[in-house]
Amino acid sequence: YSNVHRGAYALSQDATDRYEGARATVARYLNARSNDEVIFTHNVTGAINLISNSYGRSSMGPGDEVIISHMEHHANIVPWQLLSDKIGIVVKVAPIDNSGDLLLDKFESLLSSKTKLVSITHISNVLGTILPIKEIIELAHDWQVPVLVDGAQGIVHDRVDVQALDVDFYAFTGHKLYGPSGIGVLYGRKELLNDMPPFEGGGDMVEQVTFEKTTYRDTPARFEAGTPPIVEAVGLAAAIDFIDHIGIENIAVHEQELLNYASPRLREISG
Question: Smallest Cα–Cα separation from 27: which of 189, 247, 196?
Answer without folding.
Answer: 189
